[in-house]
Amino acid sequence: MKTNLAVLIAIVMGVAGGILNLIYLRDASSSMEEVSFLAIKPGLTVRAGELFKEDHFAKLSIPKNSVGLLGATAEPWASLGAVINTRANRNYDGGEVILHQDIKTPPTELKPGPNEQELWVPVDTRSFVPSLLNPGEYVSFLVPTAALNGAAPAKEKEKEKESNPDEDAGPSPAALAEQTGIEVIGPFRVLAVGNRLGSYDVWKGHNLSQQQENVLTVAVKTEGGQLDPKARKLWKLLQQSASRQAGVMKTKSNEKTN
Predict the structure, then answer these.
(1) What is the C-alpha separation between 163 and 78, in angstroms, rounded?
(2) Which residues, at least 6 apart from 113, have a Cβ–Cβ distance to it below 8 Å?
């Protein structure tokens, strides 16, 4: 009788030990299993409007049992293919995690970089298609130079306009440039196209109206509180031409003009 009881106790203890061992192995396996998220590579900066590229990203892996709320807010590594070639809606520093809201929500404020200021430039929407230009891309401006080849100075043109109010506003920038010469100044990084701070597709997807497409907001460098020479030259020529609308030419960030 005592022998049978001892055997039964041994069996029960063996079964209990097995169950505890399974629980331990399950917990250990859970702690070793990882979930990976999209993060910006350390040392990199991605600016608002810039196209995401594959080499911008690093995999941030966290034990599954430590993910917490991050799992509901961060983009998983598996979505890398869907994020590549979309545009950043805000500035990112190295190590930051890409959040769901960053990809789906249009930006709400201008994001110039360090030592940058915003400059609003009137542009001729007859010479380019605003919906094909997005914040983060680069443009150069085609600006008529001061009076050349016998063309009347801007002040004289203004006087003529005042005396003849019914007269047409004047030739387009392209026609004026044909008479007076032209300067190509840039490149400048676009911060906004009118009131649009994000890509055209994101803006349209949120049923946001596009307004004031004839004004581009660009980032300009400042040196000691002053505009850099390129920005000063642009502003001076715009003033000399009575702030006529500039032409727009899409360029690359490393293309040097004036």
Answers:
(1) 67
(2) 47, 91, 219
Cα–Cα dist 192/186, whole Å: 16
- The pTM assigned to this predicted structure is 0.55
- What's the token pair of residue 22? 């399974």
Closest CA to 90 of 109, 114, 118, 70: 109
Q: How many CB atoms lie within 10 A of CB 232?
A: 12
| pLDDT tens track for 151-163 | 444 445 555 555 5
Residues 6+ apart with CB under 8 A from 191: 48, 49, 110, 111, 112, 118, 135, 197, 217, 218, 219
The answer to whether 100 and 203 have CB atoms below 8 angstroms apart is: no
Plot region of 11 (φ>0 → left; ψ -120 to 50 → alpha; else → beta): alpha
